[in-house]
Design brief:
Elements (H helix, E strand, L loop, with lengths): L1 E5 L2 E3 L5 E8 L8 E6 L6 E6 L5 E3 L7 E6 L4 E6 L8 E7 L9 E5 L1
């Protein structure tokens, strides 16, 4: 099992990003997937989930700003972030809900 995040970078406040999580070794439509973010010195925060049935959940702090989705054909899970603000600066990780598989993360920096 492997998860590879991409799409992070340096973005101006107010901008948008789409993070990708390419999975291998399993199919994302047969797994519950999650995005987390980590700010140094703070606890890792669960920001969003997408479940096998396609339903989604969001942390209260990101509702209306983040959108999680998946592309079964590409075996990829996405996290779209709009109206970026400095508080969104973090390393973003995708992970499986079961099995404890995590990617290495992608850095998002909002200036």
């Amino acid at each position: 099992v492997q998860l590879v995040e991409s799409g992070g970078g340096l973005v101006q406040a107010g901008g948008s990003l789409r993070l990708s999580c390419a999975a291998s070794g399993f199919t994302v439509d047969d797994a519950d997937m999650a995005w987390y973010r980590q700010v140094p010195g703070r606890e890792c925060e669960l920001v969003s989930d997408i479940y096998r049935d396609g339903s989604t959940e969001y942390a209260d702090s990101v509702k209306g700003q983040f959108t999680i989705s998946r592309d079964n054909a590409k075996n990829t899970v996405y996290l779209e972030i709009h109206s970026l603000k400095s508080d969104d600066t973090a390393v973003y990780y995708c992970a499986t809900e079961a099995g404890g598989y995590w990617g290495r993360g992608t850095q998002v920096t909002v200036s």
